Amino acid sequence: MSANVAKDQPGEGRLAHADTDHPPIAPAKVGVVIANLGTPDDTDYWSMRRYLGEFLSDQRVVDYARWKWQPILQLIILTRRPFLSGQAYKSIWNTERDESPLLTITRAQRDRFSERMKDLYGDNVEVDFCMRYGNPSTESVLNRMAEKGCERIVFFPLYPQYGSPTTATANDQAFRTLMKMKWQPSIRTVPAYFDHPGYLRALAASVTDVYQPLETPPTKLVASYHGVPERYLLDGDPYHCHCQKTTRLLREQLGWEKGDIDTTFQSKFGPEKWVGPATVEHVAELAKQGHKHIAVISPAFASDCVETLEEIEQEIRDSFMDAGGETFTYVPCLNDRDDHIDALVDIANNELGGWLR
Question: Domain 197-331 - what CATH class?
Answer without folding.
Answer: alpha beta
